[in-house]
């Protein structure tokens, strides 16, 4: 049994070493919803090794498709459990003192909140990454309790118009400072409520409070949650019972604001200001991840509250996972295409048009023509 544990630890360790300093990109395509039946999809096909080909409905013939390559692509049928299992090694490494950042990027309605949290008041089956990650950290810390004592603390904040607010406080209007922490053990938002969680029910309670607070601060006209970033931060402190040495790990779970481009000629006032802030912080995030992927010596963390807050879990030995969320509807083609290009840029893997698949498609078209000519001839007879 101890051999098995060793073996498992070694496997996890290798997987984790491989992830260190790397940016992983998982693409997830949400299913059509029950009120979207009969809509056409922009997804041509996807493969098990992370390739995705999308088709531009307004173009015909050559160059109407584009291939992207990510670490993984989840199709519309992928379950919450499956998506979690593929993220699990990363999350578990927080108990070994790693800093990890997981975020969901994409246009409004593409499934960011579903992936991170699940639907409102989720069942066990459709809980998202946030819940599963915390449950898993509890389980794993319990299973190590003969050798390690762990403490798990949680903060939940929202960033809206470059202002940080506490979603676990009675006073969600108070603006909080983000501290620039150079040492890895620090807490970026010291004034945000910090809750010690001891069981899965504690987690559910906190998520519900944050959800209610987020909904309450939304005005009747604006669905503000799509225009703010929400950040769940999990601080883990572990003490080795024998040596009394301790380690710290941080996990950031981020549901980003919608990435859709807003037509500047059409919005004014509050809406314009929101759009500008979202643009600024998402491109700051893109710049940071890009700089990290390129192993650039200067990483521009200071350009937005979001990147300042995530700093500990983005640079150096931290591990980053981005969920790129896609709405399959052809009407979303242009947003989908720019979302995928953003993801491609930050992952550092760029591919051109899907030539090989284009040939297959040509062959398929020819076969179709042969079939219909045959049918025409048969009809004549
Ligand atoms: P976003 O947070 O990106 O704006 P949501 O997560 O709110 O998008 O998703 C939009 C809608 O699609 C919601 O009704 C959500 O429940 C549903 N949805 C998203 N992804 C899935 C999925 N994988 N399976 C089932 N329903 C989903
Ligand atoms: Mg959402």
Automatic annotation (TrEMBL):
Domain of life: Eukaryota
Keywords from the named record: ATP-binding, Coiled coil, Microtubule, Motor protein, Nucleotide-binding
GO molecular function: ATP binding; microtubule binding; microtubule motor activity
GO CC annotations on file: microtubule; microtubule cytoskeleton
Binding annotation for ATP: 106-113
Domain Kinesin motor, first and last residues per copy: 22-349
GO BP term, example: microtubule-based movement
Family to which the UniProt record says this protein belongs: Belongs to the TRAFAC class myosin-kinesin ATPase superfamily. Kinesin family. KIN-14 subfamily.
Name recorded for this polypeptide: Kinesin motor domain-containing protein
């Amino acid at each position: 049994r101890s051999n098995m544990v060793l073996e498992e630890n070694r496997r996890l360790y290798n997987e984790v070493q491989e992830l260190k300093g790397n940016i992983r990109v998982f693409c997830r395509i949400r299913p059509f919803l029950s009120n979207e039946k009969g809509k056409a999809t922009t997804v041509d096909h996807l493969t098990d090794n992370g390739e995705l080909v999308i088709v531009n409905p307004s173009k015909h013939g050559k160059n109407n498709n584009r291939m992207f390559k990510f670490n993984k692509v989840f199709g519309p049928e992928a379950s919450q459990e499956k998506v979690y299992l593929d993220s699990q090694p990363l999350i578990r490494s927080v108990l070994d003192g790693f800093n990890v950042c997981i975020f969901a990027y994409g246009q409004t309605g593409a499934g960011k909140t579903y992936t991170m949290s699940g639907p409102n008041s989720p069942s066990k089956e459709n809980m998202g990454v946030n819940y599963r990650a915390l449950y898993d950290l509890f389980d794993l810390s319990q299973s190590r309790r003969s050798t390690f004592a762990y403490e798990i603390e949680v903060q939940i904040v929202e960033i809206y118009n470059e202002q940080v607010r506490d979603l676990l406080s009675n006073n969600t209007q108070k603006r909080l400072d983000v501290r620039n922490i150079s040492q890895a053990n620090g807490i970026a938002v010291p004034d945000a409520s910090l809750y010690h969680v001891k069981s899965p029910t504690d987690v559910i309670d906190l998520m519900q409070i944050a959800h209610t607070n987020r909904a309450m601060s939304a005005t009747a006209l604006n669905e503000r949650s799509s225009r703010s970033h929400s950040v769940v931060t999990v601080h883990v402190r572990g003490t080795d019972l024998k040596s009394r040495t301790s380690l710290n790990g941080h996990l950031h779970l981020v549901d980003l604001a919608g990435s859709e481009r807003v037509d500047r000629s059409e919005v004014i006032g509050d809406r314009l200001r929101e759009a500008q802030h979202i643009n600024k912080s998402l491109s700051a995030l893109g710049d940071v991840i890009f700089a990290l992927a390129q192993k650039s010596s200067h990483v521009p963390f200071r350009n937005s509250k979001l990147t300042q807050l995530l700093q500990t879990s983005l640079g150096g030995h931290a591990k980053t996972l981005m969920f790129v969320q896609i709405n399959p509807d052809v009407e979303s083609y242009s947003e989908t295409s720019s979302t995928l290009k953003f993801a491609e840029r930050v992952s550092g893997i760029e591919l051109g048009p899907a030539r090989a698949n284009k040939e297959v498609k040509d062959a398929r078209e020819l076969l179709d023509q042969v079939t219909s000519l045959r049918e025409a001839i048969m009809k004549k007879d």
